[in-house]
Amino acid sequence: MKIFIIKNHDGSLLGKDLEWVDGANASLLFTAQHRDIALNQLIELNAKNIHLRAEIIECEADKKGRPTLVLEAAALLSEAPANADQISAA
Questions:
Q1: Which structural domain, as residue segments, surrounds residue 34?
Q2: pLDDT tens per residue, range 54-78
């Protein structure tokens, strides 16, 4: 099943409470089953903040209706080495 989420220019995702979140908990994200619903929400957000740069992302949903794209990204982040900051500082 396809669902739609809204992603900000800095990678944050829109939550159900209409606040920008990191997407670590996929069940707290704003999701829409239809693109026009997501587009209406994006237009409302742009009316409040005219400098907002956000986009609608289409992704697959799991059995619970959560976006699998976000779940996969969170899994990749958790697999990152713990000393990544030390490596980049060297």
A1: 2-89
A2: 999 999 988 888 888 655 555 555 5
Q: Are 21 and 13 in contact (CB under 8 A)?
A: yes
Using CA atoms of 9, 43, 49, 74 in order, give the dihedral in degrees to the nearest 10: -30
* 2-40 tens-digit pLDDT: 999 999 999 899 999 999 998 888 889 999 999 999 999
Q: How many separate domains does the chain show?
A: 1
E strand or H helix at 6: strand 2-8
Residue ranges of alpha helices (H) inside the chain are 35-48, 68-78, 84-89
Tell me the pTM.
Answer: 0.74
